[in-house]
């Protein structure tokens, strides 16, 4: 299958866009004190639908690289330029995340600047997996995936505790980056960041699984994709007996569980959109994914800092005094709707912003 033909798969843009819309939905409730349980992350161990969103985005990033990088990397002379473009894009995403956190620190008067974050993790995963896509073959990529899962599992299983603040990921992040973390307690010296350094091993594994699944999708190995989804889910159920599902630690069992669901979602989207001609819902978000996430996050910070977001929730609550969670959800849906209008207008004018 040629690279241009592969790039026309609407299912990939659609699935990426749905994850971005879902990110906006769960990140922007009207009030964090009134949120339906499925729209919240698990407190620690466990799994909710919200916990799938970020792994699915990284998985789709890997799938996209199977279509955008792998075909062109088959020519050795093209690899230096591909690598340079990849690393430049990763650096731009990293800097965008750094500037976004600088804006949050300034507007919200936070006690400390946060070093890690969603965009920073995306940049790291894109850089590492992109280099693997350019310079290695599938067999080596499977070996790297196994090494990440088993190596990280060994670190976690060898730890005295996986409890909040006491686990190896939190301890390493605190030792290296405190107080520049998502949470830090100056009195105890304990910190934690759900997008920190050590747990990035699991996130890279999720992205790498997407690269491998994308290769099978390019080859139209749909039966293999179905088998992979089942195998990941079964392996996750077995692994959870030793390492619980935990999105904040991005445990290997969580990688496999979210990965199995992501493979199933990819296969279903491909059948619906590419094979059966269903509308590519979410595509408009998908073709401006990072730009939509970055712009919406900046807008949310401005609304919160100005007090406008609290006012909007008060207005919604006044209309639904007996249902504050529904009012909070309507605020989030309205925010997604505003940004759907933005990406619709951009796509209508064929403006696709690539950071």
* Weakly predicted, low-confidence segments: 1-7
The largest sheet, given as strand count, sense and whether it forms a barrel, is: 2 strands, antiparallel
Beta-strand proportion:
under 5%
Placed side by side, the strands forming the largest sheet appear as 1-2
Secondary-structure blueprint of this entry?
Elements: H1 3-7, H2 10-27, H3 53-68, H4 70-73, H5 79-107, H6 118-135, H7 138-157, H8 168-177, E1 183-185, E2 190-192, H9 200-218, H10 222-239, H11 252-275, H12 283-286, H13 289-306, H14 308-319, H15 324-348
Antiparallel strand pairs: 1-2
Helix pairs in contact: 2-3, 2-11, 2-13, 2-15, 3-6, 3-9, 3-11, 5-6, 5-13, 6-9, 7-9, 9-11, 10-11, 14-15
Q: What do these coordinates show?
A:
The protein has helices at 3-7, 10-27, 53-68, 70-73, 79-107, 118-135, 138-157, 168-177, 200-218, 222-239, 252-275, 283-286, 289-306, 308-319, 324-348, and strands spanning 183-185, 190-192. It is mainly alpha-helical and 355 residues long. It folds into 2 domains: 8-40 and 283-355, no CATH class; 44-275, no CATH class. The protein has a two-stranded antiparallel ribbon with strand order 1-2. Helix 2 (10-27) runs parallel beside helix 13 and helix 7 (138-157) packs antiparallel against helix 9 (200-218). The longest helix has 29 residues, at 79-107. It is globular and about 55 Å long.
